[in-house]
Structures are given as structure tokens and as C-alpha cells.
């Protein structure tokens, strides 16, 4: 059959109105055009679909079957249009977002949750990478956007600061460094270190700065959670470096001292990072707008 959706809509209008004239008006078609379409529909079906009488028309048994399936098909079209609108509006689909360790563990959960909760058909694939890796991926067109530290260069990309992300040193309460007001990263490199798992973006970031200083981080133990790191430091296993928000949040559960790092790269901010706003997908634009409006001091 060559009947299209416009034909089906017209047939339903005529069947529901009980009149070709009134049905054509409901379908916003001229009577001559509607009559021609109706003749083609019946010719294509090969069977009478309407019984004509002085007061209008009624559907035949075949016409009832066509009307039934027409309603189903038009309903499915409506559902499809709704889903496509959701995709266009960023309420459905899968969104890939790249973020460094601090953004992934501390910043994003509370910021992303309300936005995602209002989009039950949308899925988010969070990918942890170092800020340097994220900048490279965006520059190469392999990622739409990400959340990075402003301590890294991002030539040709747009960055918008959304939160502070200073790194601090945490030390056991009796450690000699606990008496200092601030500490240089170089002074930490000779200390037993409690690190985050080697595949974390934070570990890679600290390792890069250690190599730049001509040293290497040699963790006494590597933990998979910030909670585990703080537990180790509180028991004197070593020192560690964490985002300031994490260190402050967990200090109520563990006894350790927090000391600022003097190095400029440790006083960083989290930034939204992308190349071209107009090239971003609708879901990504929606998310970045939300994050940009929910800034922290």
C-alpha cells in the first residue's frame, strides 16, 4: 500500500466527522483535494472503506480496520516525535563527560545529581582522565567537553571556572611538617607517601610534578578511596596530598593536620572546558549551562 500518514490522518478526520466535507476541514484540506486523496486511498486499498449516504459517510468493516490501524500508527508517530524532541532538548541519549579526579569525586556528584534526576531517559558516561589528557582529547575532537584544572594550558579552548580545587598536604598530627604554616611540594617528595590508586588522574598529576622536580613519588601504600588515605595518614603511615574540600570533609573522622601547598599549580580551580559552543550537543550544552550557573566560591 502507498498510503502515507497524511492520508491516514485525513481518513480518521472523515471517519470521526461522518462527513467528507467536515473531515476535510478538520484536516485543513480543500474539499476537492480531500476527495481526490480519499479516492486514491480506496483505490489503493482495493476495497470500499466508506458507505456514502445523504447525511454523510460511515465506515465499512474494512474502513473500521483501517481506522484502527491508523490510530495506532499516528499514536506511534506522536511517541516518536516526543522521543526525538527529547533527544534534541538533551533529555534522552548518552552523554560522555570527561573529568579529573577532584571533579569526578567531589564536585560533580552533588552538581550533576539534580540535573540528571530531571532527565530520567538520559545516561551519563563519566570518564576519569588527567586535565592534560582531557585538554588533548577536546583539542583532537575526541571529546566534546570536560572539567579540568586551570593549572594546565588549554590553547584554543574555552575555559570557565566553576569551583576552587586547591590541593593540600595532610600529615599525622605529630609529624614535623605539621608545625609549618605551608609546605613546598619538594619537601614532601622525601617523605613516606600515601597515594591514590595508580590509575587515578590525581596520582598521574602528582607524579608529573614529581618528575618535573627531578624526583619520583614512591607511595608506601596506594589506596582506592580518599577515606582510606585519611585513615592511613591518621595512623602515621605517611603523608598525602588531597583536594582541600576532601581533606576538610574527612578531618572530622580522622586525626591529621592540613597544610597548604606553596606551589602555584596546587592553587587551582576547576573549569568547564570545550572548544566551540555551537558544536556541542544539546545535552552537553544543557549540562554546562547548569554547571556554569551553579558556581561555587
TrEMBL record:
GO terms for molecular function: DNA binding; DNA-binding transcription factor activity. It holds the Pfam family HTH_1. InterPro entries: HTH-type_LysR_regulators, LysR_HTH_N, LysR_subst-bd, WH-like_DNA-bd_sf, WH_DNA-bd_sf. Belongs to the LysR transcriptional regulatory family. GO terms for cellular component: cytosol. PANTHER family: HTH-TYPE TRANSCRIPTIONAL REGULATOR YBHD (PTHR30419), LYSR FAMILY TRANSCRIPTIONAL REGULATOR (PTHR30419:SF2). This is LysR family transcriptional regulator. Keywords: DNA-binding, Transcription, Transcription regulation. Residues 3-60 form the HTH lysR-type domain.
Amino acid at each position: 500500500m502507498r498510503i502515507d500518514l497524511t492520508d491516514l490522518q485525513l481518513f480518521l478526520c472523515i471517519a470521526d466527522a461522518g462527513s467528507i466535507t467536515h473531515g476535510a476541514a478538520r484536516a485543513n484540506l480543500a474539499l476537492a483535494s480531500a476527495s481526490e486523496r480519499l479516492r486514491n486511498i480506496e483505490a489503493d486499498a482495493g476495497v470500499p472503506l466508506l458507505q456514502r449516504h445523504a447525511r454523510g459517510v460511515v465506515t465499512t468493516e474494512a474502513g473500521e480496520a483501517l481506522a484502527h490501524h491508523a490510530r495506532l500508527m499516528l499514536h506511534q508517530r506522536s511517541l516518536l516525535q516526543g522521543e526525538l524532541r527529547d533527544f534534541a532538548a538533551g533529555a534522552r541519549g548518552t552523554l560522555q563527560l570527561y573529568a579529573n579526579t577532584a571533579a569526578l569525586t567531589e564536585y560533580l556528584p552533588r552538581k550533576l545529581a539534580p540535573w540528571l534526576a530531571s532527565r530520567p531517559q538520559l545516561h551519563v558516561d563519566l570518564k576519569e582522565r588527567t586535565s592534560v589528557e582531557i585538554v588533548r582529547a577536546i583539542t583532537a575532537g575526541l571529546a566534546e567537553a570536560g572539567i579540568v584544572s586551570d593549572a594546565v594550558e588549554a590553547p584554543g579552548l574555552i575555559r570557565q571556572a566553576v569551583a576552587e580545587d586547591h590541593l593540600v598536604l595532610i600529615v599525622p598530627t605529630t609529624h614535623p611538617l605539621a608545625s609549618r604554616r605551608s609546605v613546598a611540594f619538594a619537601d614532601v617528595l622525601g617523605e613516606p607517601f600515601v597515594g591514590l590508586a595508580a590509575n587515578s588522574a590525581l596520582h598521574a598529576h602528582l607524579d608529573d610534578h614529581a618528575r618535573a622536580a627531578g624526583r619520583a613519588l614512591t607511595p608506601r601504600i596506594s589506596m582506592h578511596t580518599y577515606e582510606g588515605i585519611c585513615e592511613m595518614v591518621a595512623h602515621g603511615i605517611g603523608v598525602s596530598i588531597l583536594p582541600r574540600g576532601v581533606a576538610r570533609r574527612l578531618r572530622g573522622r580522622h586525626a591529621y593536620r592540613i597544610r597548604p601547598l606553596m606551589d602555584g599549580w596546587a592553587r587551582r580551580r576547576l573549569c568547564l572546558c570545550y572548544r566551540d559552543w555551537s558544536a556541542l550537543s544539546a545535552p552537553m550544552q544543557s549540562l554546562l549551562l547548569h554547571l556554569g550557573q551553579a558556581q561555587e566560591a
